[in-house]
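2 proteins. here.
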Amino acid sequence: MATERHKPGKAGFIYALYNPLFDPLKKIGRTELLPEDRASQLSRTALPEGYSVVYRRFVSRVHDVERRVHDLLSPYRYKKEFFCVTVEQARDAVEKAAIEVTGIESWPDGQVVHLRNRDKFVLALTAGEVLSISDIGPSTISCRTRPR
């Protein structure tokens, strides 16, 4: 039986968008599209300047993670999904919320991670990164991300 913490849910991106018209605010939300597509959708409104993606993370249970991020950042809320935070504060809140909600922690770039039999991982690389997977034995796989 799945615990509440590991209950299945939709996967998607938590993003932080920036628009110089609203400096220093960041729009922090969720999408099941690419965050760049969401920024483009929002930029087609009657704004003279568009949004840019300043941070994104792919997560499972995207609705729950977004809710937790908004709770963590509530002291900095301006209105709705707009928060007066730095990119680093937004990133830290998303990382903390993702771990709290999903129990899944990502590994740092370049670090070798040994997966056990039946471990699962999500592949969300940025342009120019390569995932190297090596079969080391019957029950372990070694994974490493690195720039091309």
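next one coming up
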Amino acid sequence: MDKKTDDSAGKCPFTGGPGGHRNRNWWPEQLDIGVLHTNAPAADTQGNSKADVERTAAIRKAIKGHKDLSTYANNVKIVTQNNRVTLRGPVRDESEKALIGKIATDIAGAENVTNDLDIAPKKK
């Protein structure tokens, strides 16, 4: 064996030595959970201001006014926080995604809408 192999034998490959980190060093105070809060808003983070609630309701009402939309489209998640709208969930196809995006931008303005809608897989 070479010197490098002999020196590293029995040592932790992550810390380079025996002992290493203990659980108390990792859980939970040492975890940076800030990265968990960087994604787009979820349905449970709907803003409670009057403007946010009214904007969400107006978009929902406009979507419901289109009787030709799929059940998927009628059930998309609309989350408004600080006047910024996020659309999430599945829709039937690109045309539904575009239509719902247009409805939201007509009400909230293009700069205030994030269209995160997904196309649902085709049923067999």
